[in-house]
Write a structure and sequence with these properties.
The chain is mostly helical and 409 residues long. It has a domain of 191 residues. The protein has a two-stranded antiparallel sheet with strand order 1-2. Helix 1 packs parallel to helix 3, helix 1 packs across helix 5 and helix 9 runs parallel beside helix 12. The longest helix has 38 residues.
Amino acid sequence: MTPSPQPITDPAMLWSIARRLHPIYAELAREFVIEAPASDKFDIRDLETMEAAPGAEAVEQARQWLNDMDDRVQVHQLRQFLQTSSIVDREGLEVLLQHFLAKSERSEAVRDKIDFLLVQYFSQGAPTDLDDDKADVAYVAQGLAPILGEVELKSPVWLNGLDRVLEAARRCRSLDELLHGGVLEQGRKAKSQAGDLFYLPIALVGFTRFGYLMRRVFFRLMLADLNEILDGLTELEEKGVETIDCQRAQFSAQEPIIRLRMICQSWKVMFQAEYSSGQPLRMLVDLRASVDFALGRGAATADSKEEKSGSEDAGKAAAPAAAKASSPAKSAAPAKAAGDKAGNAPRAAAAAASAGGSKTVAAAKAVPPVASQPAAKFAVTNDETPEFEIDAVPEWNPDEDSQPAKKQR
């Protein structure tokens, strides 16, 4: 079996990595107002001026500086930064991966950063028209060869469950169904329960493939939801409706349809970059719910959600005892409501639309305000949660697959 990545001990290589990562971490600290660590024994400016590795003590200080920065930079900050900044090219991703894969400390945060970086690296190198069926383990392993080298392609049985999660995701008909149906949490549980086996090269390939294909499902459902919203707005206009209640989506109780259309068009442009950052996920899902409610589909939607909730409760009750005993992941804290930055994009679009002279008309058919709405159950930008964090969903159940935790020694 191909061995896992090993720690880097060569002083020259450690210094070279530190010099390459210094401007990236400096920009991260500036953007997220992170106080960079200081040392009386080490001048950080040496990383900018000294090409050759200095003495062993200075190299160790540089390594410690990187580790301290790693502790201060959260996963969601690294994710947002790499998806919005042009400072990190493909070579920069390689150095970041080399740095994190060589760490001897394998915390949950380190694992999640590696998971994201591998998917980001593979996504940048994959053609945009790559068919999902062609993105098999061998293809992904080839794309990750500069990072992992040649990988033995015999997948362990316990990775097979990821394909079932992907199939469940592909059956989802909306972003709301994907986010609240427990599909995403199944993959997160699998990653958490893999333990140190996650770092086996074949496992890194498998989870990268899973993350890449889940991104594509996520992206397609976002665009599908936008198209459904636009079609629904057209139908409402044809019925003579001019405003609808969109309070659940953080808009007004009498939001003009003409402005909603302009906002959706601006979102559609933003979503052209696959898996771009700053996506107002909750607003998108809630806006579709508002449009569906205005079209008289709200009751059916509520019934389906009750049925879904009931099936999830049943799934939890029937979870095998073995799954519960095998190193369960920490329960995910409920995600926050849409944050300030997440809300800025649609609000800015709304302001632009308003400046265009659209006139708000109080429509007789406006939908009554919703008394109360549940808190957001999935992550938006700036939330300290994994990429697609969902709460209150069934445990990862590998069925008859081998439990990775039991194989770990």
